[in-house]
């Protein structure tokens, strides 16, 4: 949920609803990206545009002194610190508090600082996607997490978008008449900004050779659309087979994102007791930093949800003692009724997950939200 849910619905009323629905945790957005929402559950606005890449708490300058980037506090939170107000009522309602925290997906900062965004082989800036190799971006994200963890009684911090962004993300009037394939979309978002060029080169990658390969592959797609040349690659593995340098660059990119997560755990959350919950499946490379992973059953049937959870839990080491949550969406026609939601919840349990998160209070139709209480009863 979001700060505006607490403002519009009344803090005590919303927290009471969470408790009475049989839930034990509020996952409240500490910040959020640009979005246009249809809010069937709102007592005020039904069509709602977020302010765009703002934070929902009064931020503190001392956490951002190593970076040029600065947060912007939402109008919703300028008079009331909703994270603080919810935090001091947790015991009253028997709830835990998680900060739903967005990382490199930040259009406001990307437009203000295009030099900090992903820049592809055509020198295009992706304004919605900050580059996680950029030092200003890394220090900003670590400062943001530290700011939240120090000032609020967080049980956990749910990290979303703390890696590399993509070309497509639902931007305003987003359009592609070429019909880029998934690989081509990925290549259009492959960052070769100055930070990436310098750091990847220091790791032994010939970034220039990679850029030429990616550019020629994409130019062939643009030239031949709607068709493609014979032998045109359809998967990253096909292209990596042609270029060991591309494989090296992709391996380096994974270390960049992983190291950011580890630094957040060791630096930003140090001494706070706040858990790091990673949005994504179990990954051995960050298992030492993450206290939880997640899988998604958005729009899935109970049978599909069971299989998704079984695969996710089956990937965990036998000695794993952290969390594994399944994300369940309430909306867009799924689940179709209360009985199906109950079956999905049981599938999550039977599939080996330790918990689940419902997405989300702000946007979901009220009838679907009312199904939660029976769905989680005695499960």
Task: Kindly list the characteristics that best describe this protein.
3-stranded parallel sheet; 4-stranded parallel sheet; alpha/beta; 15% strand; 379 residues; 40% helix; TIM Barrel; single chain; globular
Task: Please give the structural blueprint.
Blueprint lengths: L2 H7 L1 H10 L4 E5 L1 E2 L3 E3 L8 E3 L4 E2 L26 H6 L2 H4 L2 E7 L4 H6 L4 E3 L5 E6 L4 H17 L4 E5 L21 H7 L5 H9 L4 H18 L11 H7 L1 H25 L6 E4 L13 E5 L5 H13 L8 E7 L8 H13 L4 E5 L6 H5 L1 H5 L3
Parallel strand pairs: 1-6, 6-9, 9-10, 11-12, 12-13
Antiparallel strand pairs: 2-5, 3-4, 7-8
Helix pairs in contact: 1-2, 6-11, 10-11, 12-13
Count of alpha/pi helices: 15
Residues in β-strands, percent: 15-25%
Q: Mean of the pLDDT scores?
A: 95
Q: Outline the biggest β-sheet.
A: 4 strands, parallel
Number of strands: 13
Q: Name the poorly predicted regions.
A: none
Return the CATH architecture of one domain.
Alpha-Beta Barrel
User: Would you identify the CATH H-level superfamily of one domain?
Assistant: Glycosidases
Order of helices and strands: HHEEEEEHHEHEEHEHHHHHEEHEHEHH
* CATH T-level topology of one domain: TIM Barrel
Structural class: alpha/beta
